[in-house]
Please model this.
Amino acid sequence: MVTAMTGSKADNVTWHIGEVDRDVRTAAHGHRGAVLWFTGLSGSGKSTIAHRVERMLIERRVFAYVLDGDNIRHGLNRDLGFSPEEREENIRRIGEVARLFADSGAVVLSAFISPYRRDRDRVRGLLGEGEFVEVFVDTPLEICEARDPKGLYKKARAGEISNFTGLDAPYEAPEAPEVHLETADRSVDEVAARVVGYLEAHDILGDS
Ligand SMILES: Nc1ncnc2c1ncn2[C@@H]1O[C@H](COP(=O)(O)OP(=O)(O)OP(=O)(O)O)[C@@H](O)[C@H]1O
Ligand SMILES: [Mg+2]
Model:
């Protein structure tokens, strides 16, 4: 069966419905697909926590996969910079990729600053009920700047980087994230375990 596509520039593009649906994939994997959308300032801990959660899930044989900011900017989004429009397009494409992965049955962990609430909500709108889990990595700017794992704050303060989130570009904190992590006085294992606990409590991991 085919249905007409909307929102595409190309004419005569149709969507091909496959022979395997979501329920069959869920049964094959033993867990549901979902998107864990980590958001927070640079240095807040998105990548560190997402990769720890990925390892914990893989050890339980859950099909988990991290989509990480810099890596995507090296490839898929190498044509995009950091203006508001380019940040919006960056998140739009990642949202579409995350949706495809989740549809395939994966637990996707995306680790992008994603500073605009509207862009994150758009991605939420691409996914089904309960499939989008917003994880707010809530680390105060002073602590992110003190950590400065990539030396970016130092460069931004020296005027070598502009449009830097938290300094001269805005960060819109989530208003009602599914998971709210404060990392300042906690270990990576502690906060990663909270994320896994959320997935267990919301029946995303099934028997895995
Ligand atoms: N509880 C914690 N959770 C996460 N990271 C922590 C925690 N405590 C300390 N850290 C440290 O904070 C730093 C977080 O850096 P990380 O690269 O994960 O940030 P990020 O949010 O991915 O930043 P960016 O947006 O620039 O990619 C790491 O050096 C990590 O070891
Ligand atoms: Mg990162």
